[in-house]
Structure formats: structure tokens, C-alpha cells
Amino acid sequence: MTKSYLKTKKGVVKVTFELPSDVQAHKAVVVGEFNNWDPAATPLKRKKDGSFSAALNLEIGKEYRYKFYLDGGRWENDPNPDRLVPNIFGTQDSLLTT
Q: At residue 71, what are phi and psi to the nearest 5 degrees?
């Protein structure tokens, strides 16, 4: 995950979510508090090298829980989150701080 603070849009950060080519998935979606955990809202695009990515503009000064949803049935954390936090299911969520 990378963050780019936009000079033209005050209070907004562009966050690019990325998964490496070795993720072993055909489809990937990023879901979290920023899209109401909707598995159809933010699909990642597959690049020529086999990796996945998607970019979102998010409000600065917030924290968002999120995960990757792979192939319509597998939940994975970001390999490079700001940190991991426990969730109500006894596992962890990735956490993004803007």
C-alpha cells in the first residue's frame, strides 16, 4: 500500500492498494470501512506482471480497517499494512491510517 498526498485536493490522500504476483488468485477486491465492506465496490486490476492494484481517494486523518477478498471466498490481510488489529472474528484486519 502506498499513499500520495494530493496538492490539488486538500484533505485527501490517494491510497494505492497492491498485491504481489505470487498471491495465487484470479480475482482480488479490497474491502473495508471505506466501502462498507462491499465485495463488489473496489475490484483490483491485474497488471501485466500478475500483480493487482487499485487506488482510492480517502479522507486524511482517519483510520480504516480493510482486507483483501480473493476469488470470491478467501480473506487475506495486506502484506504491508500500517498495522494489524484484532477483529470480532478472532483474526486480524489490516489497518490504514491516512
A: 55, 30
The pLDDT tens digits of the residues spanning 56-98 come to 999 999 999 999 999 999 999 999 999 999 999 999 999 999 9
Q: How far is CA 1 from the centre of its chain?
A: 7
The larger pLDDT score, comparing residue 7 to residue 4, is at 4
CA gyration radius for the chain?
Answer: 13
- Judged by DSSP in three states, 82 sits in coil
Query: Distance between CA atoms of 72 and 43, rounded to whole angstroms?
Result: 11
In whole angstroms, give the CA distance from residue 5 to residue 32: 20
CA gap 9, 19 in Å, rounded: 26
Closest alpha carbon to 55 in 98, 10, 13, 9: 13
